[in-house]
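Forum > Structural Biology > Help requests

Title: Can anyone predict the 3D structure of Holo-[acyl-carrier-protein] synthase?

Hi all, first post here. I have the sequence for Holo-[acyl-carrier-protein] synthase but no way to get a structure on my laptop. I'd be grateful if someone could post the structure tokens.
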Amino acid sequence: MMVLGHGVDLVDVESIRRWIEDPRDPLVSRCFNAEEITEIGEGSDRVERLAGRFAAKEAVLKALGTGYGAGISFKDVVVRRNAGCPPEVVLRGGAASAAAAMGVIDWKLSISHAGGMSIASAIALGVPPQSAHPAEGPR
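Reply #1:
Sure, ran it for you. Structure tokens for Holo-[acyl-carrier-protein] synthase below:
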């Protein structure tokens, strides 16, 4: 396996808090699936966890080289985390199609928080698809 893409994103937690509280643009319902919202839960660090997940989604989309739009939504990237385990990436819809076209078969994802910021790094691993016209070898 080889690294096929890498994305990093840094998010200001207070900016995410303001975005969550703005009724004109509901970040949570637009960017997170019900299973992610349930897993994130409530508590004093809820906004920090949402910011980290948002940064992770952005990092994954950067690793894919797509960003969002053109058939790919934030909800196509699901970030899961079980206690004591590293976060994992599950792709659906357009993001899954983009990853398959690149040959991505696994992800390494890291999320961290400090000083009112959340950062995520996503590494796409896999085997690139064979070229339609492979280079000719020696004869």
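The helical segments are 13-21, 27-31, 34-40, 46-64, 93-102. The first helix runs from residue 13 to 21.
Shout if anything looks off.
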